[in-house]
Design goal:
The complex is a heterodimer of chains A (about 90) and B (about 500).
Chain A (H helix, E strand, L loop, with lengths): L4 H10 L6 H18 L34 H4 L6 E2 L2 E2 L6
Antiparallel strand pairs in A: 1-2
Chain B lengths: L7 H9 L5 H19 L2 E4 L1 H16 L11 E5 L26 H8 L3 E6 L33 H8 L5 E5 L6 H7 L2 E4 L20 E5 L2 H11 L29 E5 L9 H16 L3 E5 L7 H16 L17 H12 L2 H14 L4 H25 L2 E5 L15 H6 L5 H6 L3 E9 L2 E9 L4 H13 L11 H8 L1
Parallel strand pairs in B: 2-3, 2-4, 7-8, 7-9
Antiparallel strand pairs in B: 1-3, 4-6, 5-6, 5-10, 9-11, 10-11
Helix pairs in contact in B: 2-3, 2-16, 5-6, 7-15, 9-11, 9-12
The chains are: A mainly alpha (about 90), B alpha/beta (about 500).
Chain lengths: ~90, ~500
C-alpha cells in the first residue's frame, strides 16, 4: 500500500477538501490502485534526465510597462457570492 | 440535403451568393437543436435570441456589401470551459453553475471578429476531466451513432453537435485527448494544435502545460478554416508562441507522394481492439496506394505516458483548482469560519472525479513525495518527448488509431478510474510532447465510427492537414451520417 487512510486525510486537509467517511475509504483504495500503476516509472533510470515542465520552452515573457484597460471593480465583483462596499465578504477570520 | 448538414465552406458559398441568409441558417440550426438535443444533450446553454440578433447584424452587413470573410455568418458553438462575456460558463460543474464571465476568451473574441454566430455552450466532463462526458454535473450527452454509447470526452458536446448537425463547427479543448477521442467516437475531424499555437486566455485551466484549444469540424477544409481564425500569438497568454502563422488552407492538396509516415508499434499493443487495428491497417493501405512511404517505427517510452500524464495533469490541476474557494466567484457553502467555508464549498462544489484528481495531484506535489512522483513524471516526460524528436528526424508524421476502441457503453468504465485513464493511451503522449495531432474519420466497427490519428512535428499542422485532406478526398467516411430519424421524431413530438 503506497498510501494509508491517514495519508488521505492529511492530503484532503492540504487540498481544503472535506471528505465523507465513504469518500475517504474510496479514495484510499483508488489512489493506491493508481499509484501502484504509476510505480512502473521507477523502472526507468532518469538520473541524468532533465525534467520537462513545458514542451515549448519560453523564457521571461515580458510586455511594455504601460497601463491598459482592466475590468472595472464593479464588474469584477458581480460574480462574488457576497460583496459589500467594493470588497469580497468572507466569514470572520480572527 | 438539409442546410444544417453542409460544411462550413459550402455554407460560405451559399451566404456569399445570397442563397441563404445567416438568419435563415441560424434558425435552421436552432430548430435542429430543439429537435435533436432532448435525446443527445450536447448543449448546456442555447443562445437563441443572442444568436438571431448576431445573425441579423451579419445580414445587414452583407446587404451593405461588406466583406464577410470565410467564417462570417456561420453558426457555431463553444465548449463550456471557454469564457463568454455575459453568458454562463459552467465547466459542467456545480462550482461554476452561476458563473457569468466578465470577459471573453481570446478564441471567443477571434471567432466573434470573424463574424461567426454563437449558438450556445456545450457539455463536457466537469472541468474537462474525463474521457466520456459522464462526469458532467448537468447533462448526459449521447453518441448519435448509438444512443447507448458515450460520445467520448471531455469535449463530448463539441463532437456530438458537429456529428448531429447542431452546429456548423465547434471548439473543444484537449489536455490528454479531449478533442481527438470524442471526434473519433462521433466520426468528425478534430485537431489538437501545437502547444502555444492557440491562445489559452479565457480557457478555464485544467493542466496548464498540456491544455490546448482546437476545432471540431465535418471536413478537413473546415478545420483549416477555423484554425486560420483562432491560431496565432496572443499577448494575453504568456505561453502563446510568437510564430509565423500560415494560411492553413494552402496545405489542402490532394497529394502525399513521397511523404514519410511512421507507424509506432507500441500503439498497437495490448488493449487495442483488433477490429480497430484492422480498420486503421486498411487506412494505412489507402495512404500507401496514394504514394506515401510507410514504415514501422518505435516510440519506446509509450507505456510510461499514462502514469507520467496522470501525475503531471493532476498536479497542475490541484494547483489550478485551488482558486475555487467560494470567495470571488462560483459556489459558496455557508460555514461559521473561513476554513470551514473553503472545505465545505469545495466538498459540495466539485464532483467525484475532480476531487479524485485534486487528491492525486496534491499527494504527488506534497512534501516527501514530490521527487518520487511529480519530478519523476516530468523526467519521463522528457524521455517521451525525445522519442518523438527522434522519430521526426526520419518521418514527416506518425500514424495510429485515435482510441483503442470505438465508443463504449455508459457505465462501462466509470466505476474504475484506472480503466478510464488507460483508454487515453494513444492520445496523451502527444500532449506531453506538445506536438499537434488530428483525428479523422477512418471507418466503422459495429456501426460506430473509428478515428485515425496523425501526429506531427511542432507547428507542422499543415502537413497533418495535407495528409488528412488527401485521405478524405479518397475515402467517403466523412460523408456518412448517423441516422437521427427517431431522435428527431421524438424531439419534434
Amino acid at each position: 500500500m503506497a498510501i494509508s487512510r491517514e495519508d488521505v486525510e492529511y492530503v484532503a486537509a492540504l487540498a481544503r477538501l472535506e471528505l465523507t467517511e465513504q469518500e475517504t475509504q474510496e479514495y484510499t483504495e483508488q489512489l493506491n490502485s493508481i499509484l501502484d500503476y504509476a510505480a512502473m516509472l521507477e523502472q526507468l533510470d532518469t538520473d541524468n534526465v532533465r525534467p520537462t515542465a513545458h514542451a515549448v520552452p519560453l523564457h521571461n515573457v515580458l510586455r511594455k510597462d504601460q497601463v491598459n484597460e482592466s475590468i472595472p471593480r464593479e464588474k469584477a465583483l458581480r460574480n462574488a457570492p457576497d460583496a459589500d462596499e467594493g470588497f469580497f465578504r468572507v466569514p470572520k477570520i480572527v | 440535403m438539409s442546410v444544417v448538414e453542409k460544411s462550413v465552406s459550402e455554407l460560405h458559398e451559399l451566404l456569399v451568393h445570397r442563397d441563404v441568409s445567416s438568419t435563415e441558417l441560424t434558425k435552421a440550426y436552432i430548430d435542429r437543436i430543439h429537435s435533436a438535443d432532448p435525446d443527445l444533450q450536447a448543449y448546456l446553454t442555447i443562445l437563441e435570441d443572442q444568436a438571431l440578433a448576431q445573425a441579423a447584424e451579419f445580414d445587414r452587413k452583407i446587404a451593405q456589401g461588406e466583406d464577410i470573410g470565410t467564417l462570417g455568418g456561420i453558426p457555431m458553438a463553444l465548449k463550456d470551459n471557454m469564457c463568454t462575456e455575459g453568458v454562463r460558463t459552467s465547466c459542467a460543474s456545480k462550482m461554476l453553475d452561476n458563473f457569468i464571465p466578465p470577459y471573453n476568451a481570446t478564441v471567443t473574441d477571434r471567432l466573434r471578429a470573424a463574424g461567426t454566430i454563437l449558438l450556445g455552450k456545450l457539455n463536457m466532463d466537469e472541468f474537462a476531466m474525463g474521457s466520456s462526458t459522464e462526469n458532467s454535473n448537468f447533462a448526459k450527452t449521447r453518441n448519435p451513432w448509438n444512443l447507448e454509447c458515450v460520445p467520448g470526452g471531455s469535449s463530448g458536446g463539441s463532437a456530438v453537435s458537429v456529428a448531429a448537425d447542431e452546429a456548423a463547427f465547434t471548439l473543444g479543448s484537449d489536455t490528454g485527448g479531449s478533442i481527438r477521442q470524442p471526434a473519433a467516437f462521433c466520426g468528425v475531424v478534430g485537431m489538437k494544435p501545437t502547444y502555444g499555437a492557440v491562445s489559452r486566455f479565457g480557457l478555464v485551466a485544467y493542466a496548464s502545460s498540456l491544455d490546448q484549444i482546437g476545432p471540431l469540424t465535418k471536413t478537413v477544409r473546415d478545420n483549416a478554416l477555423v484554425m486560420n481564425a483562432i491560431a496565432g500569438h496572443d499577448l494575453k497568454d504568456s505561453t502563446s508562441v510568437p510564430y509565423e502563422k500560415p494560411d492553413y488552407t494552402k496545405f489542402l492538396v490532394n497529394d502525399i507522394k513521397g511523404l514519410k509516415i511512421g507507424i509506432p508499434r507500441e500503439y498497437y499493443g495490448e488493449g487495442i481492439d483488433s477490429d480497430v487495428a484492422k480498420g486503421i491497417q486498411a487506412g494505412i493501405q489507402t495512404l500507401i496506394d496514394l504514394g506515401a512511404e510507410v514504415e514501422e517505427c518505435s516510440l519506446p517510452h509509450t507505456e510510461y505516458a499514462i502514469p507520467s500524464y496522470y501525475l503531471i495533469a493532476t498536479a497542475e490541476a490541484s494547483s489550478n483548482l485551488a482558486r475555487y474557494d467560494g470567495v470571488r466567484y462560483g459556489y459558496r457553502a455557508e460555514a461559521a469560519d473561513v476554513l470551514g467555508m473553503f472545505k465545505t464549498t469545495r466538498a459540495k462544489g466539485f464532483g467525484p472525479e475532480v476531487k479524485r484528481r485534486i487528491m492525486l495531484g496534491t499527494y504527488a506535489l506534497s512534501s516527501g513525495y514530490y521527487d518520487a512522483y511529480y519530478l519523476k513524471a516530468q523526467k519521463v516526460r522528457t524521455l517521451i518527448k525525445q522519442d518523438f524528436d527522434k522519430a521526426f528526424e526520419k518521418y514527416d508524421v506518425l500514424l495510429s488509431p485515435t482510441a483503442p476502441t470505438p465508443a463504449f457503453k455508459f457505465g462501462e468504465k466509470s466505476a474504475n478510474p484506472l480503466a478510464m485513464y488507460l483508454s487515453d493511451v494513444t492520445t496523451v503522449p502527444v500532449n506531453l510532447a506538445g506536438i499537434p495531432a488530428i483525428s479523422i474519420p477512418a471507418g466503422f466497427v459495429n456501426g460506430l465510427p473509428i478515428g485515425m490519428q496523425l501526429m506531427g512535428k511542432a507547428f507542422a499542422e499543415g502537413t497533418l492537414y495535407r495528409i488528412a485532406y488527401t485521405f478524405e478526398q479518397n475515402t467517403n467516411y466523412h460523408t456518412l451520417k448517423p441516422n437521427l430519424g427517431e431522435v428527431l421524431a421524438r424531439g419534434n413530438r
